[in-house]
Design goal:
The complex is a heterodimer. Chain A is an alpha/beta fold. Chain A has one domain (about 15-395). Helices cover about 20% and strands about 35% of the residues of chain A. Chain A has helices at about 15-30, 35-50, 120-125, 130-135, 140-145, 155-165, 400-405, 415-430, 435-455, and strands at about 105-110, 110-115, 125-130, 165-170, 180-190, 195-205, 210-215, 230-240, 245-250, 255-265, 270-280, 285-290, 300-305, 310-320, 325-335, 340-350, 360-365, 375-380, 390-395. In chain A, the strands form 2 sheets. A 10-stranded mixed beta sheet of chain A has the order 2-1-5-7-9-11-13-15-17-19. In chain A, β1 and β2 form a beta hairpin. The longest helix of chain A has 20 residues, at about 435-455. The two termini of chain A are about 30 Å apart. In chain B, α5 runs parallel beside α6. Chain B contains 8 helices and 12 strands. Chain B has a 6-stranded mixed beta sheet, with helices on both faces. Chain B has helices at about 45-50, 75-80, 100-110, 115-130, 150-160, 180-190, 230-240, 240-255; strands at about 5-15, 20-30, 35, 55-65, 70, 85, 95-100, 140, 165-170, 195-200, 215-220, 225-230. The N and C termini of chain B lie far apart (about 40 Å). Classes of the chains: A alpha/beta, B alpha/beta.
């Protein structure tokens, strides 16, 4: 590895006064209440007071510096596809449209293009709404939970809270148990440039909800002049005894730099399970930070990816234990073809009070081509003495004995390799709480493997 | 004149430049059961794996012919589709790939066309029943978490489903208790017909009580040093491999 010179990040794109004015105009255009504008502006000041990553930080050291723009712009969605009435005229089919759901919201071009909620879910008080709208209709709720997960993790995260154009509020009241998943579909407007998402999910005490957050692009073949940045700040709150499941599946335009910060606060005897599947973006960096401050909590992180071309797919995670008797588990599995690269930097942090913690992590990377590479880095910081921790990391080719076994049954090598690879990823996809979605993921795995494999 | 069903002709096999099989010849005719018996390190597993085309083994000389056609240059999948089968000594587990999906692909590959779902179900249930295996078994991942006995039964299940012309059984009896050995042996006997041939590779004689061999061969240092009928296996059981090994040593010294 070469040592990159650490030049000072360019600040040229950040114009504080313009940003303040743009955020205000954005908030007004969405008719947001004053307190929401105040939250945006406070977040903006926080962001302006922070620095970009330099590349020296442990969690940013392995990110290709030239491919992640350090920029924060308010996206102007008024251009391209709106008609005179301000409505979106053309909605492309979304790859992940569900068969069954308890509630759904589909956003494209900063607009809602579909919204639906099951009768029972509505009667139970489930909320699936754009954040601006929820702020008007349920001000006390949104105000209570906005930013409640904690201070922003970094400058992007802080900007994300200020300049988001695509916000969503998902809420399950106390004791409500949903039978089907909720869906948040986003179609990337490739012509519009950067997208900033802010997703706030709250599961009140003893409730159970699962949210599938699925991103697709309107035109995956478009040749873009500038790589769009898609940033997502996701805040997950599971109150005592609640069970919250969040699955994020993304197939953005290939030129996209996707950066997400997913944070979870796990209540007493509550659980948060996060599953992510990365397919589209040229650079995909996911930060997943789950906080187990309460006793008896459970947190799970599952990641799946298939990289090709020169994709860079990175997971930076933290399982943060403070409560007694809490459990966390991380399992990331990826397949890399061509010259794609992966990084997993996973930290298990156990504070002195986190006794009886059980925390584990496993990272496994299959390399299908010589040019592909992976760098799994499990880290343990343990300050309690009565804990069970384990970590395992692996990088390697498909097991030749597995291939031989399948070939010995008449299955051609290419088909055999795919079977092993899909089987390898199936264990992660099995964690997605929707059968149709699991099938879609399996198809995407197949599609993603196709072009690279057919040449060999 | 028709070619023999399966011929191993002066076969030499090397692993990482070390020659393990040293000019072994053997001919199997339809309807025959041959047993190759040998002590540890005699080259049994090398022979079995090289017949199937495992990439770790290099054919250094000789030939392997199935129905008169050399398979030496064929990759393993082509050999399998041509009708060669290897029951593995240590079947590999493949997590995430279900038996039911794997078996269907394997049958379709062997037949050269997709097996219809209905026919597949019927065939599967029939063979599962014969091997006293639960239907739920095929919902599991390939060999994943299987006990030693389950793995061997799964190999016999595949033998019954794929209907190969020549089945090479690599220490199929190892690790089996007496009941499992009986069921597995019955599975082999049910499969066996006048149209196919079986090559049992084994250390012990005990499976030969259930699967009657027509010919028994003794393998020492990668060569067949003695061939005979079923009584040869009994002699081995009584006297062990020692006399054959002594003889080989003596031959080497005198040459």
């Amino acid at each position: 590895m070469t040592t990159a010179t650490l030049d000072a990040p360019s600040e040229s794109d950040i114009k504080p006064d313009d940003l303040r004015a743009e955020v205000e105009a954005l908030s007004r255009s969405k008719s947001e209440p004053d307190w929401l504008l105040a939250f945006r502006l406070a977040s903006l000041e926080q962001a302006l007071g922070m620095e970009w990553w330099t590349g020296q930080e442990e969690s940013w050291r392995r990110t290709p510096r030239d491919r992640l723009p350090r920029r924060a712009r308010v996206t102007d969605f008024r251009a391209s596809v709106h008609n005179a009435n301000g409505r979106v005229t053309r909605v492309p089919q979304h790859a992940f449209t569900p068969h069954a759901h308890s509630g759904l919201i589909h956003k494209y071009h900063g607009d809602i293009v579909a919204t639906d909620i099951a009768e029972q879910a509505e009667a139970d008080g489930i909320i699936v709404k754009p954040l601006s709208e929820a702020a008007l209709e349920h001000p006390e709720l949104v105000q209570q939970w906005l930013g409640a997960v904690g201070q922003p993790l970094d400058r992007y995260d802080a900007f994300g809270r200020a300049i988001w154009t695509q916000g969503v509020f998902i809420y399950a009241p106390r004791g409500v148990v949903l039978d089907e998943s909720l869906f948040y579909l986003v179609t990337q407007d490739t012509a519009a440039g950067d997208h900033w998402h802010y997703t706030l999910v709250v599961a009140e005490r003893e409730s159970q909800l699962s949210l599938i957050d699925a991103g697709d692009a309107d035109d995956r073949r478009a040749d873009l002049d500038e790589s769009p940045l898609i940033h997502a700040s996701v805040e997950l709150i599971a109150e005592d005894g609640a069970q919250l499941q969040f699955a994020s599946v993304q197939r953005w335009h290939r030129q996209t730099a996707a950066l997400s910060t997913t944070r979870g606060r796990v209540g007493r005897d509550a659980s948060i399970r996060v599953t992510t599947a990365a397919f589209g973006a040229d650079l995909d960096k996911q930060r997943i930070d789950l906080d187990l401050s309460q006793n008896g909590g459970f947190a799970e992180i599952r990641g799946l990816f298939v990289g090709d071309g020169k994709q860079h797919i990175e997971h930076v995670t933290r399982q943060h234990h403070k409560g007694v008797g809490a459990t966390s588990d991380l399992l990331i599995r990826g397949v890399l073809t061509d010259e794609s690269q992966a990084v997993q930097y996973g930290l298990i942090r156990i504070e002195p009070e986190g006794q009886k913690t059980s925390a584990h992590q496993t990272m496994r990377n299959l390399l299908l081509d010589d040019g592909a590479g992976a760098d799994p880095i499990p880290m343990l910081e343990i300050e309690a003495d009565d804990v069970k921790c384990s970590h395992a990391a692996a990088v390697g080719p498909v097991d030749p004995d597995q291939l031989f076994y399948l070939q010995a049954r008449g299955i051609p090598p290419k088909v055999a390799e795919r079977m092993v690879v899909r089987g390898f990823l199936a264990e992660i996809a099995d964690g997605v709480p929707d059968e149709h979605m699991r099938e879609v993921i399996d198809e995407l795995v197949e599609i993603q493997l196709e072009p690279a494999r057919s040449n060999s | 004149m028709t070619s023999p069903l399966f011929e191993i002709d002066a076969l030499e096999v090397a692993v990482e430049d070390k020659q393990i099989v040293n000019g072994l010849s053997l001919t199997l005719e339809p309807g025959e059961v041959h047993a190759i018996m040998g002590p540890n390190g005699s080259g049994k597993s090398t022979l079995a794996n090289s017949l199937m085309g495992h990439p770790r083994y290099t054919i250094a000389g000789g030939d392997i012919r199935l129905q008169g056609t050399s398979v030496v240059d064929m990759p393993p999948d082509e050999r399998a589709r041509a009708g060669l089968f290897l029951a593995f000594q240590y079947p590999t587990d493949i997590p995430g790939v279900s038996m039911i999906n794997f078996l269907r692909r394997a049958i379709s590959a062997r037949r050269g066309e997709e097996i219809p779902v209905r026919e597949y179900r019927q065939l599967l249930n029939e063979v599962l029943g014969r091997l006293q295996m639960d239907e739920q078994f095929v919902r599991r991942y390939v060999n994943d978490g299987f006990s030693g006995g389950e793995k061997k039964r799964a190999e016999i299940l595949q033998l019954g489903l794929l209907q190969p012309l020549v089945a090479v059984m690599d220490e199929t009896d190892s690790g089996l208790d007496i009941d499992a050995l009986r069921i597995v042996s019955e599975g082999i006997n049910t499969f066996h017909s006048d149209d196919n041939a079986i090559l049992l590779i084994t250390h012990y004689q005990r499976i030969l009580r259930y699967v009657q061999p027509d010919h028994v061969h003794v393998l020492i240092d990668g060569q067949i040093v003695e061939s005979g009928d079923a009584s040869l296996a009994e002699r081995l059981e009584r006297d062990g491999y020692e006399p054959f090994m002594e003889r080989t040593k003596a031959e080497v010294l005198s040459s």
